[in-house]
Amino acid sequence: MNPAIHATVLTCAELGCEPLATLLARYGMTVERVPPGTEIPGSYWGESEAGLICARLFVRDDTPVHSALHEACHYICMDADRRAQLHTDAGGEVIEENGVCYLQILLADELPGMGRAWMCADMDAWGYTFRLGSARAWFEQDAEDARIWLRQNGLIDQEDRPIWQVRQG
After folding, report:
1. Does residue 6 belong to any structural domain of this protein?
2. Cβ–Cβ contacts within 10 Å for residue 165, how many?
3. Which residues lie closer than 8 Å to 163 by C-beta, 6 or more apart?
4. Measured distance CA(88)–CA(91) in Å, rounded
5. Domain tally for the chain?
6. 5 pLDDT band (50/70/90 cuts)?
7. What CA–CA distance (Å, rounded) separates 65 from 1?
8. Domain containing 138: what range?
9. Which residues pair with 57 in a beta bridge?
């Protein structure tokens, strides 16, 4: 699939839940599908946006993959105390949010049929805002603080590859 010719954001139905579940299992998370038309438990934004309760990520077929990865990355990036109490609102400081956005772009490369270019396009379509005007420009030119934070917290290595563990402490 090519994001340049895809008119809408990639959904969990289009991607399939199995690749997402396999990826997030590496972090100790489970993906739970919610039936169409059913409210998504733990969804901060409501509607089709992913929900998060402890280590469970809730999605429907119409949930955007960028939403699912964003919420999962909140779980990965938060400290153990917040993770143990997690229900709906991930909270966190600005630098952690930047780390979440950066990690979700990296993890998109691990999903067959997505990749970082599609993730950035979907983030822009949803309305993520960055100083340089797009997720891709931010990721490539303005995200050094996010990379440093992810490295300092043991979430990516020096080559910007995921380490496959949640933040400790």
Report:
1. no
2. 12
3. 154, 155, 156, 157
4. 9
5. 1
6. very low
7. 14
8. 12-152
9. 31, 52
3-state secondary structure the chain: CCCCCCCCCCEHHHHCHHHHHHHHHCCCCEEEECCCCCCCCCECCCCCCCEEECCEEEECCCCEHHHHHHHHHHHHHCCHHHHHHCECCCCCCHHHHHHHHHHHHHHHCCCCCCHHHHHHHHHHHHCCCCCCCCHHHHHHHCCHHHHHHHHHCCCECCCCCECCCCCCC
Does residue 158 sit within a domain?
no
The verdict on residue 62 lying in a domain is yes
- Tell me how far the alpha carbon of residue 15 is from its chain's centroid: 14
Both structure tokens of 92: 């966190």
Q: What is the pLDDT of residues 144-162, one digit of tens each?
A: 999 999 999 999 999 999 9
Instruction: Let me know: does 74 contact 54? Beta carbons within 8 Å.
Output: no
In a domain, 167, yes or no: no
Structure tokens at 72: 């999962």
Each residue's pLDDT tens digit, 49-81: 999 999 999 999 999 999 999 999 999 999 999
Q: Are 163 and 154 in contact (CB under 8 A)?
A: yes
